[in-house]
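ERR on first pass: missing label on line 2. Operator R.T. fixed the label and resubmitted. Corrected input:
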Amino acid sequence: MTSIGTGYDLANSIFSPDGRNFQVEYAVKAVENGGTSVGIRAKDGVVLAVEKVITSKLLKPGANKRIATVDKHLGVVYSGMIPDGRHFVDRARDEARSWRDTFKTPISTSDLASRMGGYLQAYTLYQSVRPFGITAIVGGFDSELEAPVDGEVGTGPSVGAGGKVEGKHGGPGLYMIEPSGMYWGYYGAATGKGRQAAKAELEKLDLAAGTLDLKEAVKEAARIIYVAQQDNKDKEFELEMTWISNATGPTKGRHEEVPKELKDEAERHDTITALLVERESKPNIEYDSQKVRSRLPFAMNAARLMTHA
Amino acid sequence: MAMFSQNPVLNGPNYSFADVPVQDHVDGFREHRFNPYTDNGGSTLAIAGKDFAIMAGDTRLTAGYSINTRFSPKVFKIGGSTSTQDDANILLSVVGFAADGEALKERLDSICKMYRYRHNKPMSVSACAKRLSTIMYQRRFFPYYVYAILGGLDEDGAGAVYSYDPVGSYEREQCRAGGAAASLIMPFLDNQVNFKNQYIPGSGVGHALQERERQPLPRDEVEVLVKDAFDSAVERHIEVGDGLQMMIITQNGIEEKILPLKKD
Amino acid sequence: MDHRPQHWGRPRDDVYGAYDASYMRPNGPTTHTQSPVVTGTSVVALKFKDGVVIAADNLASYGSLARFPDVKRLRTFAGTSVVGFGGDVSDMQYLDRHLQELAIDENYTSEKGHTLNARNLHKYLANLLYHRRSKFDPLWNHLLVAGLDEDDKPFLAAADLLGTTFTSPSLATGYGEMLAQPIMRRYAKDEEAAAQLTRDQAVDIVKECMKVLFYRDARSLDTYSIAVVTKQGIDLKEDVKLENQSWAFADRIKGYGTQTV
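pass 2 clean. output:
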């Protein structure tokens, strides 16, 4: 890199003459090596998914969750340096709690993104700190109902002062926050090692049309994680997925893990099956196929049936 | 004139209750104060035998004239290695203010558990007795409003009963009654356990009269004694009744019995 | 212009006299609740075969004034337990917010089905109430906790502002202690009897209690909330009206109010 040796990359708070903060750019590099994270904003909810790279055979399958709950209705997934992500989650929880303390109402997804964006940006300003080595995807569902204030006891006046506000409000929210502190709202977001492939897949979904529903989004998210994992297929991984629906939907407005049955169903997707078949047929890849067979019995059995047919 | 006069005799009652303020406290102070204590009634009893100790208490919990519940045990196992207290070697009974009793029990239990984990052996009853005293005295100026009795077996295997006042003054005794009906039960115990006012017939007159020799009572007799004591207390004290909880500690461990008492 | 900033924005001493800045003193006396202000009356609850029924009316009184007639005094926790609050409403709101926060924190570990059960919740609240009474700053509530314990058995227990705790097949706070508890004890005198009751029976008994309370407790309301907690979850209705009222007995009551004969 041209910056090396110029000294402008040694600390935050020093711009290079051409207006770059190299420390932030290096942080982005850290993100680009992490397991792929994906978020999809469907018409009636949000799905978060991550490719959890298995770093040791001694780790318990399904344990050590990568997607965190921040408030009832908010979840966070991130790619990059995991300890940085853990701290990000701690801070997000503090923000959500203090918002409730002051305003007696849940923080909206956009407000949380704004608070966290501000927090990350502050870590690009000082000599004494380094930027966060993560890009985080924040998903949430802001209640569409006339949300009661925390601890509220009555229903309040139905008309007049303090009455209901007409018009639509609330809904699903999805934001991606980068090490620089920059954040945008997205229909579909992807980060980490497989982000290019994942973004290409997300673009094909035409999420802006607002037609994809939550269950379809779960299946797409699972598929995209598998597709994005293709360039990295010598590594074992686990798929982890959470979702948030509206108050009448399957999670009743809460951020929860996708139920096992639905996740299994999503992993039986044709594309995934095909990918697994292709993978097993390649002899030169160092891959513990026995392990995969035990982990994904449905997918593999289906795959084998297809090849024999 | 009579129409708006404040005379209840002429116009019927002006207030629906009698204790309306006679005068306003315009310049005086009105004191509102929170009282952190209440008395939840109930009674406890402990008797030490030659190789056993019995701790007992009724299971009624009251608030004024109301019965909060008919089953709220007052005798607890202390210092077992788990929450089931299967291997506990000490008993504690508490009566008075139930919330303080619960807090005191939890406190002593966790201290005994810590002792067990650190020293790899259970606390002796005498050590626990001293420790309970210091816990209670620490709250000398905001006491646990509790009459506590600690029971177990001493180093020689003999039954041991320690009784306490609310600020931690304690002594080892042969028997002790605590709580609402203590004044009813204690004289009975003096006579039946310590043989007070029992003399050998025909042994003399006045000071020459010989006291009946004291001897430890067998376990089955003591159990009947406890039941009789509570049956009598229930007759005469409104805060005692519902159920009788008895814990008997011997070399073989702790046995618990729940017997019915009158529920009126 | 007055160049002393401490005088800015204040009434002029020469016009209004010396300014009394005593309110700014940082070391004034701290004040604690010494009596409740806006209050809710009874909460009643009864165990049955596979759960607990709990009810409380929707009124918050300011002394004898029926101040807020739309106050929900049954609060759910983690979709598995219900807390019924009697006593001060502001302290109830404080506790409710506290429980919300607790539920969110418990949810951070997303392991499903691993949260505080009703017994844990009751112990937590009782410790909180006892701690506050020991600071002479009580939370002025008497509350009932209804739900299931660690073995999925019905659980019902009470805790009051002093931290006193107790459990029983039926429980009631406030006037319910005098009026509803005897009725419920007729049907559930002990745990065994309560374990025979069906859900419908238990609901009927509790509804009957709410009616008696409305007849006789002057600080009560005929609109109430009722919840049934079972293994299947919480069935909470917050706007139930008393049914089949009959005030015929009122004719026979003499000697109160403005009656002269």
